[in-house]
Amino acid sequence: MRPGFVGRTLDGLGLLFGRPPAKPAAEEITEEARAIHVFKKTPDERKRRKAAIFAEFEDPKASNKWRIRRWISILVLNGIFIASYWSDLQLVEGALTASRVLGFHFADLNSSLQLMLAHKHVVLNLLIGITTVFLIYWVIGGRTFCSWVCPYHLLSELAEMLHLKLVKKRVVKDHPLDRRLRTVMFFVFAVLAFVSGYTLFETISPVGILSRFLTYGTAMALIWVGVLLLIEVFWSRRMWCRYLCPVGLTYGMVGTVTPVRVVHDVRNCFHEGKCREVCLVPHVLDMTKLGYSTEVETPIGPDCTRCGMCLDVCPTGALRFDIKGISRHEPTSH
Known about the structure:
Elements: H1 5-16, H2 31-40, H3 43-58, H4 65-87, E1 92-95, E2 98-101, E3 104-107, H5 109-119, H6 124-140, H7 144-148, H8 151-168, H9 180-196, H10 200-204, H11 206-216, H12 222-234, H13 239-244, H14 246-254, E4 260-265, H15 274-278, E5 297-299, H16 309-313, E6 319-323
Antiparallel strand pairs: 1-2, 2-3, 4-5, 4-6
Helix pairs in contact: 4-11, 5-9, 8-12
């Protein structure tokens, strides 16, 4: 990841669109970061860090604080739609794809794009809803929608837990796909909507299917959701979210430049890789490998879902949530 605002932004977008992560060239690393990498490779520091890693493995201090918060967020936000509809309060109308909350219009960016391409005109209320959602996710950044709002994400995360257990027991084997496939699918669905006049993506999107089912009780399409989950359990880990769904790609583009981000501090990092093991999109944490950080403090790119799982397992606080221009942080001594 290249240092500087422009370099980080371009690298982040590259990863978002599927470029494989790569070790930075020597000239891309700042002098301060290079000095830290050199120090960490000295015999005494290697020995100290190795001992600290073994101690952490023997007495892990990982929590599920952020995961619990996310699950509560998903259940509460989707529960509001259900409660409002069935109680006929009309405070929250619609579903995640398009809704009106206390009179304010909200519209999912990708769903709105599909609809406008299919019908070939712009609806004013839809434009207002897009603007509202755009501003929200520009502020909070990344693919926050995916891990904090999307109902399919919760089911897929449960499927992932089962998948990892089966992989550990060698019952199944994971089949990673090319991450560039998600970018291809973004354009494929857009072209199909424009040519056919039909929003095909909305028909097969588990996000919309689950949101409409939870709110209106339309259950037939759940068969497709079940098929996706079975594929993710027995064949490819988080296949829909990682390789196919254009929704996350859309929100990632919006949140590329955002004040709210996860930041990695190389001074505190053990580089033992626990964060990458639990990360939903591990390619965004390549800078946690020893020698890969180009800066002392590096914001994680726009493909980050802001799930917080890396924060839960990091034993040193090398990863943290940060608000640009507001948060203040000092390195921890270990």
